[in-house]
Design a protein that fits this description.
Layout: H1 2-17, H2 36-42
């Protein structure tokens, strides 16, 4: 009984893991407003003030 339950749960988990959308998801049109302001800022990555500053070091030989 316990083995049958585990097999059933495992099979159901594998089947459900295979469901879903694949590929790039597209945003729906805005419900109100033109949406141009949100589209313009969506492509720009926010600046992280705590990000480390890159250091250009010469190659060691």
């Amino acid at each position: 009984m316990r083995l049958r339950t585990l097999v059933l749960i495992g099979t159901a988990g594998l089947v459900l893991a295979g469901c879903g959308l694949r590929g790039d998801l597209q945003r729906p049109a805005p419900m109100w407003g033109s949406g141009t302001e949100a589209d313009a800022t969506a492509d720009e990555a926010p600046v992280d003030p705590d990000a480390p500053v890159p250091i250009n070091r010469p190659h060691a030989r």
